[in-house]
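Researcher: Please translate sequence to structure tokens.
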Amino acid sequence: MRCHQPDIKSEKPQISNDQPTFETNDSKLEDAENFIAKDDSQTSISSSSQPQQGQLKRTFSTYSVICIGFGLTNSWFGISASLITGIQSGGPLLIVYGIIIIASISYCIGVTLSELSSAIPSAGGQYVWSRVLAPKKYSSFLAYLCGSFAWAGSVFTCSSMAIAIAQEIMGFWVLNNPDHVVKKWQLFIIYQLVNIFIALFNCYGKWLPYLGTGCLYVSIFSYVVITITVLVCSRGNYQSADFVFSKFENQTGWSSSGIAFIVGLINPNWSFSCLDSACHLAEETQKPRTDIPKAILSTVTIGFVTAFTYSIAMFFCINNLEAIYNSSTGMPILDIFYQALGNKAGATCLGVLIFLTACGCTISCHTWQCRLCWSFARDNGLPFSKYLSIVHPKLGIPLNAHLFSEFWVALLGLLYLASDAAFNSMVTGCITFLLLSYLVPTAALLYRGRDNIKHGPFWLGKLGLFCNIMTIAWAIFACVFFSFPFTMPVEAGNMNYVSAVMALYLVWALGYWFFPVKRFSCKQTFAGGLHNNEEAEFPEVCLTDL
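Model: Translation complete:
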């Protein structure tokens, strides 16, 4: 991001090359904490913006950052919301083992993001890391491309969350009115109303830390109540361990069970997505170099424990798997509740707990999306950046960036009118765009050399290198296989349109970068571009030149 005040360089603290790392030696940990306390107070200098744009206040504590991080990822809820994708691709077995697989990969991604955020704490997150670490010749373009992927991923995430809530609201109605025939336009209207309603909660900055904390409490409370209630009401009618852990059910139409299994991993992968959300709060917490890694790894840990135990409990309580496959509600979890409790009122009450959790998750999602759009706009990465980078002086949020992103979320709702698999396509868009945004700075880090940067207090050495490689490998793997159709044979109504959407977005992003009119070309105006010869950002991080 750009530094516009000429005297900033002289004010920037000089950081010793002997930056501490997380080791078992207590004295080194104490040194790290002392270093962080001094350095974090100056973090915003490296991420400053124009005076008229304003800056966000550091109102988030370590705990509230963790709450926002988990409040967005909310893995056990993700399993509930996207259950239809995974359970058709392999039955309960896929979800159970898929959670283990994806949680392991998510730890690798989490370690990678934690190392980078600890070394380069910035609200821009992965696109700022890309600009700092990539070779100077390509740094601006790679940063722009990374930021574009990250923002697109956040928009798709908000869209998938809005559709999940819309489907749940419709599911309540269908559960209690079985004769109702769901129309696409009905879900589209509910989707738009949900998007508007949830957007209102992010229009006042002082609420957000309290909302984040409240969302965590609601999520954990709902998880405990639902799990205990379903298990108690199903006692004496549990499924066998073979049904949950061994029986593979392929309902996708794919002749290859391997492909069906891989496609089904979209469900648990979505449940562990958006791990970078805490990174974009780096300028709103006092100790970002340690707060952000704590939030990211806590999110994965809490997500694994809740999602793994929750899914096993739900699957042991299924009475009729065929009815779940043919769910008329569009939300198989409601059918599981109904089978376990035996009455619609009880199933609806448990569904309301999931609804409240979903609302909290979506509020956190909008907080993340807004910060990402705002930070990217400060570097002229988006059209109308002059306006998107403004922080509202009274509300304390980047209101224009928030409303701009909400507009695109609303527009993506049109995809639901085109395809019956729109939810799956939006989920896949969320996953793939975000993974691509993680791939760019990770590849830049490995190209530069892990030993050629000044790392932050969180650094895992060879284990970190392994996690970096796994992050890149999984991003490539997922982008290829998650673009496959969800079911076979393929028709216009069940096609996975994410490849087409990604191609169109890439054409737009490249077109905006290489736009022939210089005045409107992002290549000319993006921070670090041809006409932005500002001082280097985080100049102390890279120990060698590329």
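Researcher: Any highlights?
Model: Residues 30 and 339 are 54 Å apart (CA to CA).
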